[in-house]
Amino acid sequence: ALYSNPAGLVKHEYDFVIVGAGTAGNVIANRLSADSNVSVLLVEAGGNDAGLPALQIPFTASTVLSNASLIWNYTTSPQKALNGRVIAYQRGRVLGGSSSINFMFYTRGSRDDFDRFADVTGDSGWSWGSIFPYMLKIENFTTPVDHHNTSGQFNPSIHGDRGPLRPTLPGFPSSLDQRVLATTKVDPERFPFNLDVNSGNTIGMTWVQSTTGNGVRSSSATGYLHPILGRPNLDVLIDTQATRVLQTGSRGSIPIVRGVELANGVSGPRVTVHAHHEVILCAGAVNTPQLMLLSGIGNKHDLASLGISTVIHSPGVGQNLQDHPLLASAWSVNSNDTLDGISRNATLAGEILEQWETSKTGPFVDTGGNLFAWLRLPSIFSGKRDPSAGPTSAHVEIIPANEFISFSGDPTPANGSYVSIITGVISPASRGSVTLRSANPFDTPVIDPGFFTNELDVAAMVGAIRTSSALLETGPWKDLAARPFGLLENATTDAELAEYARNSASSFWHPTGTVKMGTSSDEMAVLDSKLRVKGAEGLRVVDASVFPFIPASHPQAPIYAIAERAADIIRSQLYERVGE
Ligand SMILES: Cc1cc2nc3c(=O)[nH]c(=O)nc-3n(C[C@H](O)[C@H](O)[C@H](O)COP(=O)(O)OP(=O)(O)OC[C@H]3O[C@@H](n4cnc5c(N)ncnc54)[C@H](O)[C@@H]3O)c2cc1C
Fold first, then answer.
1. Could you tell me if 200 and 263 lie in one domain?
2. 307/314 Cα distance (integer angstroms)
3. Please, what is the average pLDDT of the chain?
4. Is residue 393 assigned to a domain?
5. Is residue 23 in contact with ligand 1, taking CB distance under 6 Å?
6. Predicted confidence band at 173 (pLDDT cuts at 50, 70, 90)?
7. Which of 36, 55, 115, 489 is most buried per CB count within 10 Å?
8. Would you say the CB of residue 22 lies under 6 angstroms from ligand 1?
9. Are residues 7 and 103 in the same domain?
10. Do 58 and 134 belong to one domain?
11. Which of 23, 76, 98 has the most ligand 1 atoms within 8 A of CB, as the residue to mutate?
């Protein structure tokens, strides 16, 4: 049943209590409750996503980021290497979590990313080869809405056709598509074509795959949760925040943590629920460490300074935050075929919306660029420690878009036509943290992604901007006569481009790594390789926090995949336990 107030819960004991109905949480809830003998409570701080068009239209996804009722409204701490700027740091706060508000790029990460997870955890189950079946299990790869011929645009043999999620290819052509493809022919050394970046080798220019099957957002809520809301063994509690996990006993010196304290507001009554087997934290890379710290699981010195008594001293909780810095640069172009008109002309936007509403076709079915590139820039790292996982992982990302795009809040200029290129540092060397501001669970945590604190990331971003300019100078783009726009106009030397990046970069909103898994000898690894909290019984974490390194990828597909494996691990351990 669906509840919206903890006071209304009929039961207070379940086999599993899952905190966070986001990307990973809904996978776990779905797979565990598939066994009708297993009872599951899924708790979500946000509300219901169902029937909200703002969440469904791919093209206008960014407008959700100003809808305070669907997000956590976080900002970063002042970023010293971004000249002290504070960056908006959005997370989804609604069924589906960030999969309900993200930009829907669907990328699995690289073979080297996953093989590195296996290496650093000593668990071959995280290797690319072992995780690949879960990648297939996630998907029902869907024909694009315009039914165009997709041969040469992806490799169907490496995709699934029975999973809950609906990735697809672009469903509306962009006039940039042919230019991008032609670039891969005239300059294949710099811009090689990659038939399918979801093969394990991510390098090259490729067609975007996105979770927009049938022209609407496909999220963990639409794919994994709504179809199973009728299961009698699953209760879903929305508009309710977990404020602490609670120690419910001990086994020798090991605390048993099978309680969760819930509240639906700062002054709402606290309600406690218990798990017979496990509490599973799926609150994301910001809120999972926050909740652990609030519960006394963290660095004992930091906890003491906030008056929180330590249940488990685990210095890695909240550390190792990794994210991808993003920068949107615009060039003015000689073209009358860009999408800039949509944001300037309400009548045109209304017509396109009507087309989407009536037939789920037209420009609104896609998220932005139709092709993008992941590239390696080895010269930047020569003689330095390359932060990427290996040759199949990119250093930088380049997404050309046929319109003016700004992540700094700048509106589309009143005149002119624009091409934007979004660049990202996709194997960053910088590290940050999530810490508590206070012991109040309703206080915002301190989020410090540490953007550009490692100079290698600035150099990579400068390299990505230079590569973008080079792209626009190749033959297929020449007639556009692209001219740098805005702050980019006055940045030509490496030092000026670095300063431009420091003044303009923001986040891809891919925080990961804050509750990392690892070996028993790694003191900073909070979890063992089966995602159990070390030093506790009954507590596990499954979400973006668990990655020891950020995948060189948009992270939703890797998160779905690790959640699928985690569900299998939990089920097998449950049956072992039941069999004991
Ligand atoms: C704007 C934006 C664009 C993005 N674009 C892309 C993209 O194009 N492609 C891609 O692959 N990735 C993208 N991402 C990243 C991706 O969506 C996230 O990495 C991923 O969804 C995180 O999954 P998760 O399970 O770790 O957390 P989430 O999906 O964020 O789930 C956490 C859930 O826990 C809930 N919660 C938190 N604290 C509590 C609490 N105390 N009690 C109860 N519930 C709680 C939250 O409300 C949320 O629903 C984007 C993210 C954002 C924000």
1. no
2. 16
3. 96
4. yes
5. yes
6. very high
7. 55
8. yes
9. yes
10. yes
11. 98
User: Same domain, yes or no, for 304 and 393?
Assistant: no
pLDDT value at residue 70: 97
In the predicted structure, residue 576 carries a pLDDT above the cut 80: no
CB of 97 sitting under 6 A from ligand 1: yes
Residue 14 bridge partners (DSSP): 275
Same domain? 156 vs 180: yes
Ligand 1 neighbour 291 (Cβ under 6 A):
yes
Transcribe 152-217 into DSSP letters.
TT--GGGS-BSSSB--B--SS--TTHHHHHHHHHH-TTTS-B-S-GGGS---EEEE--BS-GGGS-
Grade residue 580 by pLDDT with cuts at 50, 70 and 90: very low
What pLDDT does 579 receive?
53
- % of the chain at pLDDT higher than 70: 99
Instruction: Output the pLDDT for position 575.
Output: 79
**Which atom from ligand 1 is nearest to the alpha carbon of 104?**
8
Helix (H) or strand (E) holding 564: helix 556-579
At 580, which amino acid appears? E
Could you give the CA distance from residue 368 to residue 293 in angstroms, rounded to a whole number?
38
State residue 3's pLDDT score.
97
- Which residues are 257's β-sheet partners? 247
- Does the CB atom of residue 184 touch ligand 1 within 6 A? no
CATH number of the domain to which 381 belongs: 3.30.560.10
* CB of 213 shorter than 6 A to ligand 1: no
Q: How far is the CA of 509 from the centre of ligand 1 (A)?
A: 9
> What's the CA-to-centroid distance between 301 and ligand 1, angstroms?
29
Cβ–ligand 1 contact at 91 (below 6 Å) = yes
> Counting beta carbons within 10 angstroms of the beta carbon of residue 383, is it exposed (0 to 12), middle (13 to 18) or buried (19 or more)?
exposed
Q: What CATH number has the domain bearing residue 530? A: 3.50.50.60
Find out whether the beta carbon of 510 lies less than 6 Å from any atom of ligand 1.
Answer: yes
Distance from residue 99's CA to the centre of ligand 1 (Å) = 6
Whether residues 263 and 230 fall in one domain: yes
Give yes or no for residue 45 CB within 6 A of ligand 1.
yes
48 and 161 in a single domain? The answer is no
C-alpha 262 – ligand 1 centre gap (Å): 20
**Is 432 a domain residue?**
no
User: What's the gap in Å between 530 CA and the centre of ligand 1?
Assistant: 21
Ligand 1 centroid to residue 432 C-alpha, Å? 18
The amino acid occupying position 104 is M
Domain assignment present for residue 542? The answer is yes
The last residue of one of the domains, among 473, 489, 504, is 504
pLDDT in tens, 337-393: 899 988 899 999 999 999 999 999 999 999 988 999 999 999 999 999 999 999 999
CB of 165 closer than 6 angstroms to any ligand 1 atom: no
Q: State pLDDT tens for residues 271-291.
A: 999 999 999 999 999 999 999
pLDDT digits (tens, 9 = 90+) for 71-85: 999 999 999 999 999
The ipTM, to two decimals, is 1.00
515 in contact with ligand 1, CB cutoff 6 A: no
Whether residue 240 lies inside any domain: the answer is yes
> Helical H runs in 483-555?
494-504
Query: Pick from 397, 391, 273: which is nearest to 17 by CA?
Result: 273
- Number of domains comprising the chain: 2
pTM assigned to the model: 0.98
Q: Which atom of ligand 1 sits closest to the CA of residue 240?
A: 43
Q: Which residue range forms the structural domain that includes residue 416?
A: 144-216+325-427+460-504
Mean pLDDT of 51-73: 93
196 contact partners, CB below 8 Å, separation of at least 6: 154, 155, 158, 206
